[in-house]
C-alpha cells in the first residue's frame, strides 16, 4: 500500500499560492437593495460607493456596501472623502460587518460606463487588493423591468499591458488582445441569510396578482430606444474621429518613410561620388535630421473603450427590440379575442 | 371654594393620525444586523432614518445598528457611535433624518422606554419599530409604536406605546436565485405568469356562469372595467399600428447589426495594418 508523500511544512509554505480564477460574484440581497436605492435616489446623477465582503476561493462574496457622498471638484475634499471612508469602515466594524473592501459600485446611464477613469480606478484598487470587482447598476434600464446589474473585472492581460503603457499595434497583436478582452463580465448570484428568506416569504403578498413583473410588459419603450440611439450615434462619431487619427498617423508614417528613402538614396549617391573623389563616406544615418524623428503612434485605448461602449449600446438595443417583438405579438393576440 | 384638583387621567393622543411606511431595505438591514450581533447580546438596537411627509406619514428608508449594553435594569447606548454614523449618513443623503429607532424581539420592554426617551430628545415623537426575529408568534411580526404621555395632573405617569398602522413599500423579491434572468428569460416568465392569471380569471368566470360559485358584483364590475380599457380600434388600424412598430424595431435591429459589423471591420483594419 503506497503511503502518500507527506510534504514538510517548509515545502508547503514555499509553494506559491495560485490565485484561483474568479468565477462567481455572490451578492447579498441587502447589498443589492442598498445599491438600487442609492442609485435610484440620485439618478440621473452618477454615484459611487464601496463594496465590502469576503474573498473565498472562486467566489467573491459581497455582504454589504456603503455609498460615497457626492464630491465637488475641490482639493480639500479629498482628505474629507478618505476620512468618511475610514469612519464608515470603523463604525461598520463595530457591528461585525465584514470590513474587507472588495471593490466598488457605480451607477451608469444607459451603459456608457467604459471610460478611462474606470480603468484607472481599477488599477488603483488592484494595487491594494488582490481581487476586486466593479458592479455597474443601470437605473434607467431597470425601469424596463430588468435588473440591470453587472459585475466587471479587468482581464489580466489587459492590466499587464496597461501597466507598461504599451498600446502599440505590435504589442496588441502579440498578446492577441482585442477590444472584447478588456473587461470580463462575471456572473452574479444572489444569496440571502435564512432569516431574511423567512421574512420575505412572510411579507410576500399572498395573491399572485401583485407578483407579476408588470414592468416588463410595458409597451412604451420608445424613449429608451431613442436615447440609446442618440448615444450610439455620438459614439460612432467619436469612433470615426479615432479612425481618422489612425489614418493620419499611417499617412504621415508612410510619408516619412518615403522621405527617409529619398534622403538615403541621396546620401548613397553622395557617398559614391565621394568614394570616387577619394574622400570619407558620410554616415548613412543622420539622427539630427527631423525626418528621422519617430512619429508617435496614437494610443488605441480610447478606440477600444469607445468600441466597447458601442457594442454595449448595440446589445441593449437588440435586447429591447427582441422584447418589443414579443410584446407586440402578445398585444395582437389579446386583441384578436 | 378651592379649585378641586382634577384627577382626570389625561390622555393626549397625537392630533394627526400617524402611520408609517417601511422600505424593505430596512427589514433586510435589521435582519442582517441581528444575524451579526455579538454573542452576548440578545437583541439589536438601532436608529431609523427617513422623512416625515406633510400628512403625518413617516417614511422609514434607512437604518443602522448602534452597539448597546443591556442588563436587567440598565441600558447603555453608544451615543457617540450613533452621532458618528448619523453624520456619515447625512453626508451622503442630507434629507434623511432620524425618525425613530428599532429593536428586535416582540413587544416593548421596560428598557425600551428609556431608549425611547433618549430618542425623543433627538426627534419629536419618534417611531419605535419592533421586528420579531424570533418568530415567536409563528410568524415574523413587524410593528411600529409611538409613545404617548399619560399624565395625571402634573405628574408624568407613564409612556404608553400605541401601535400605529404600518405599511410596507413595494417589496423587491430577491430570494436566492442562481442567475439573474436575462431579457428573454424574464420576458418568458412574465408572460407565463400573465397567462396563468388570465386562466384563473377564465375559470372564475366559467364557474360563475355555470353557477358553481356565487357571483361577486365587485369582481364582475372590476373585470368589465378592465376589459373596457382595451382601446377600441378597428382591426385594420390595429394591424397598421402593430406593423409600424414591428418595422421600427426591425430597423433598429438592422442598424445595430450593421454597427457591429463595422466595429469588427474597424478592429481588423486597426490592428492588422502592417507597416513596412
UniProtKB/TrEMBL annotation, chain A:
Q: Where is the composition biased (Basic and acidic residues)?
A: 267-278
Which keywords belong to this entry?
Cytoplasm, Initiation factor, Protein biosynthesis
* Residue segments, region Disordered: 264-294
Q: By its UniProt entry, which SMART domains does this protein fall under?
A: JAB_MPN
Extract the CDD domains matched here. MPN_eIF3h
Where is this protein found? Cytoplasm
One Gene Ontology cellular component: eukaryotic 48S preinitiation complex
**Subunit structure, per the record?**
Component of the eukaryotic translation initiation factor 3 (eIF-3) complex.
Record's family?
A: Belongs to the eIF-3 subunit H family.
What is this protein's name?
Eukaryotic translation initiation factor 3 subunit H
From TrEMBL, chain B:
Q: Which GO terms describe its biological process?
A: formation of cytoplasmic translation initiation complex
InterPro entries (alphabetical): eIF3f, EIF3F/CSN6-like_C, JAMM/MPN+_dom, MPN
Q: Which GO terms describe its molecular function?
A: metallopeptidase activity; translation initiation factor activity; translation initiation factor binding
Q: Which PROSITE patterns match?
A: MPN (PS50249)
Q: Which GO terms describe its cellular component?
A: eukaryotic 43S preinitiation complex; eukaryotic 48S preinitiation complex; eukaryotic translation initiation factor 3 complex, eIF3m
Q: Which residues form the MPN domain?
A: 20-151
Q: Which CDD domains match?
A: MPN_eIF3f
Subunit structure, interactors included: Component of the eukaryotic translation initiation factor 3 (eIF-3) complex.
Known role: Component of the eukaryotic translation initiation factor 3 (eIF-3) complex, which is involved in protein synthesis of a specialized repertoire of mRNAs and, together with other initiation factors, stimulates binding of mRNA and methionyl-tRNAi to the 40S ribosome. The eIF-3 complex specifically targets and initiates translation of a subset of mRNAs involved in cell proliferation.
Recorded family membership: Belongs to the eIF-3 subunit F family.
- The name under which this protein is listed is Eukaryotic translation initiation factor 3 subunit F
Organism equals Carya illinoinensis
**Organism lineage:** Eukaryota, Viridiplantae, Streptophyta, Embryophyta, Tracheophyta
